[in-house]
Write a structure and sequence with these properties.
TIM Barrel, 10 helices, 39% helix, alpha/beta
């Protein structure tokens, strides 16, 4: 029988063609005001027997799977021994396994010594996806992220010490029309302070079930950015980014009005030229009807 996933099921865009195994259900934090992904779920660690049964079922249907994403929200929060047992079972079930990945919070990374992260890396868990959202402390506080710029920087450093690559996301528009410069400056400061291997931007979009809580936590008079404002944020961010190590940059999430791809800082000028053309109307934007979360 195929795997019976506990829905809703989410994964990063780049994991769309990979095998997904639910090691946990929901998100252990689940308080970010902009995020509606796991509001319908209570966080739960799935028993190893249930996870192993899913791995066995997947191996029958897809024996040559070579990349696996561990869901749900932050599987890296599992105890290291628990994760190692899952990774060992995956390696035994899939002879061609090349990479395992998972979502992670800054706390997940900081709760594990670098030696434990290295042990996970040795079992092929080599990539984690972390939403930094912003590097501006005031913005992070208003969206109830549960982390500061320093916390994010320490988590990125811990991952690097353990040999894990981090794919980080920042949300354009999170500071609104009044706070966008602070939001972008802080985000650039964070990336220049401790860079991830990958950085993606997406544009703020709120589902109806979280919009009220998001606005209630903002300063009075919060205004959302339009596409022109989002492009101004993207332009400022790119102009300020000067990471200490190469960062693969993407704005290919479906929410973005302008898809971009390059490596920073090498391709910064080329990326800025595309954004400048878009701001002048010479580069078409992605139609609104095909954008989404």
């Amino acid at each position: 029988m195929p795997i019976a996933y506990d829905m809703p099921l989410y994964r990063p865009p780049s994991e769309g063609s990979n095998l997904i195994i639910q090691a946990t259900l929901g998100c252990s934090f689940n308080r970010c005001t902009f995020c509606s992904m796991y509001r319908e779920k209570t966080y739960e660690v799935r028993p190893l027997d249930a996870v192993f049964a899913d791995i066995a079922a997947a191996a029958r249907d897809w024996p040559n799977a070579h990349r696996v994403f561990l869901a749900d929200g932050d599987a890296l929060g599992l105890p290291t021994d628990h994760l190692l047992a899952i990774l060992d079972r995956l390696a035994a079930a899939f002879p061609e396994l090349a990479r395992v990945s998972a979502y992670a919070t800054p706390k997940n990374l900081l709760d594990k010594p670098a030696e434990e992260l290295a042990a996970l890396k040795a079992r092929k868990l080599s990539l984690v996806y972390m939403g930094i959202e912003s590097g501006a402390n005031a913005v992070l506080k208003r969206v109830k992220k549960g982390a500061s710029q320093t916390t994010h920087a320490r988590a990125l450093a811990r991952a690097r010490e353990g040999g894990l690559k981090v794919s980080a996301t920042a949300i354009l528009g999170l500071g609104g029309r009044a706070g966008w410069r602070e939001h972008i400056a802080g985000t650039a400061e964070l990336i220049n302070r401790e860079s991830p291997a990958y950085l993606s931007t997406l544009q703020l979009g709120l589902e109806d079930n979280v919009a009220g809580a998001f606005l209630a936590a903002q300063e009075e008079g919060f205004e959302f950015q339009d596409d022109a404002g989002m492009l101004a944020e993207q332009e400022l961010l790119l102009s300020l980014l000067d990471p200490p190590r190469p960062v693969i940059f993407r704005s290919n999430h479906a929410s973005n009005c302008l898809p971009l791809a390059g490596t920073l800082p090498k391709d910064r000028d080329a990326l800025l030229a595309v954004v400048a053309a878009a701001r002048l109307g010479a580069q078409p934007l992605r139609p609104g009807w095909i954008r989404g979360l």
